[in-house]
Design goal:
Layout: H1 3-22, H2 24-67, H3 74-80, E1 82-85, H4 99-102, E2 105-109, E3 112-113, H5 120-123, H6 135-151, H7 156-160, H8 164-169, H9 174-202, H10 210-237, H11 241-270, H12 276-289, H13 302-312, H14 324-359, H15 366-378, H16 382-410, H17 413-417, H18 423-428, H19 449-455, H20 457-479
Helix pairs in contact: 1-9, 2-6, 2-9, 3-16, 6-9, 6-10, 6-11, 9-10, 9-20, 10-11, 10-15, 10-19, 10-20, 11-14, 12-14, 14-16, 15-19, 15-20
């Protein structure tokens, strides 16, 4: 583009801004957009800070509560359990992602794999499930609508006022006119993105990577650029403002409201997953085959018992130098965990496949593309949640096996067997509370910025394809503008 043409583009953009400044509707919409973005950034940041502080306090309280337990039988502590809390990532102040639905803490105990708890959406009302007023929701869903209200008449207005032919006769080409209108709309995009970008930069001081912040801001800039191009294309194609607005309103409903639902429904249909009740029954059926770890006489442990007698070269379990009940508990927990992990991996594999199928819809809906990109870059995607589940499960297993080791080495087998004979026997079948200091410090962090950025590449490509197709369409229409 020559300097002369660029100056014309700037002049058109300035003229468009003069029109908006005279228009009460345009300025009202712009003010509402900026106010919504700013308020959501502040409110969400405060909420996430409070959540982070609360989860840290709860984790500390849970650790102290466990360690402060009195002398007990070690298996009682296995069932007493422990909590693991996940603190939010710095960028999650802008996009909580699936964390609002999946939960942020897990109760760890023996023989069970519990699901995450305390999801915000599960605790909210039906209205909150329509979409929380987070910065991500505002920019993904409401900002395109605000841009439509501001720019739907950009070109069609010139036709209705019969000034288009005058502008073209003065030497302003159709492409230059559209580019000028587009520059004005892009400046509005800059105003909407600015609070988001500033807030994202603040997360760097909280430990977030500059690469992740840059990817986040650039992703949203590309997304809103797609909507600017859609608005320009519709306004160029339709000769009347009413036609342009109707078409853009329909496109907004289709791309922002309908397509995300179609994507999730299609994913659930294409990759069916077993229901919770059916899975629970299947898990219980498999666990029954392993025997009852609380019953040392269960036939399932007959071979295990014989191998121990041969290993220690003794004739009966009473002669073992360790507690047989503790060994059975440890062996049972290991086998149960293998089964539980097998079903958990199957479930997570199905969830990941469903997510991948839904992400393919980013090629036909920029809303799906930016939603995927945002959650991945922020660290609130399904991949991060699955890693949280795997790490907490490893924490649970180590915690339970640590107590089983205490059971094996610190408690006499005969005392263990006679623990219910009387009060004195019960007291004797306890171990010192010093043994509860086995908890590992749990600090979950999201994947590195490089990994998150690599995962978001398909979503970036989807947005770039949208931009390329729309730019080509606008060039085609612009050359025929009359």
């Amino acid at each position: 583009m020559s300097i002369n043409n660029f100056s014309k583009v700037v002049i058109v953009a300035k003229d468009e801004w003069r029109y908006w400044l005279r228009s009460k509707l345009a300025m009202t919409v712009l003010a509402i957009g900026l106010l919504l973005t700013l308020s959501s950034v502040v409110v969400t940041a405060i909420t996430m800070h409070e959540l982070s502080h609360a989860r840290h306090e709860l984790q500390t309280t849970s650790d102290k509560s466990f360690v402060d337990q009195p002398d007990r039988h070690p298996h009682r502590m296995v069932h007493y359990g422990h909590y693991a809390f996940r603190t939010p990532s710095p960028l999650s102040t802008l996009d909580p992602g699936i964390d609002a639905y999946t939960g942020n803490s897990i109760f760890l105990e023996g023989h069970r794999q519990n699901s995450a708890m305390f999801a915000d959406q599960r605790q909210g009302t039906a209205l909150t499930k329509l979409g929380s007023l987070t910065p991500a929701f505002i920019v993904q869903t409401l900002a395109p609508l605000l841009l439509i209200l501001i720019g739907y008449s950009s070109i069609s207005r010139e036709r209705e006022l019969q000034t288009l032919s005058y502008l073209l006769a003065q030497g302003t080409s159709g492409i230059t006119l559209i580019a000028g209108k587009g520059l004005a709309l892009l400046s509005v995009v800059g105003l909407i993105i600015a609070p988001l970008a500033v807030s994202a930069l603040f997360t760097v001081s909280a430990g977030e990577s500059l690469l992740a912040v840059t990817s986040f801001v650039v992703g949203y800039a590309l997304y809103l650029t797609v909507w600017v191009l859609l608005i320009l294309l519709a306004s160029s194609v339709f000769s009347k403002n009413s036609g342009s607005f109707t078409a853009l309103a329909f496109i907004w409903i289709l791309l922002c409201i309908v397509m995300p639902r179609v994507a999730s429904t299609t994913a659930a249909t294409a990759v069916p997953s077993t229901g919770k009740i059916e899975t629970d029954f299947a898990v219980k059926a498999e666990l029954r085959k392993l025997g009852d770890g609380h019953n040392t006489n269960d036939p399932a442990f007959k071979q295990f018992k014989q191998s121990l007698l041969e290993k220690y070269n003794v004739n009966s379990i009473d002669e073992l130098p360790v507690n047989f009940r503790g060994l059975v508990a440890s062996e049972s927990e290991a086998k149960q965990t293998d089964v539980l992990n097998q079903f958990a991996e199957q479930r997570m594999h199905a969830e990941l496949k469903q997510t991948q199928v839904s992400r393919y819809f980013g090629w036909i809906s920029p809303m799906v593309a930016i939603r995927s990109l945002s959650m991945i870059v922020v660290g609130t995607s399904i991949e991060t949640h699955h890693r949280f589940l795997r790490e907490t499960e490893q924490l649970r297993f180590d915690f339970v096996q640590g107590l089983n080791k205490v059971h094996i080495e610190k408690l006499n087998y005969q005392d263990d067997m006679n623990r219910n004979a009387n009060a004195a026997a019960t007291q004797k079948a306890r171990v010192s509370a010093d043994n509860w200091k086995i908890l590992q410090e749990f600090n979950f962090t999201v994947d590195s910025a490089n990994i998150r950025t690599q995962r978001s590449v398909p979503a970036f490509l989807q947005l770039l394809l949208w931009i390329a197709v729309l730019v080509g369409s606008i060039k085609f229409v612009g050359k025929r503008l009359s």
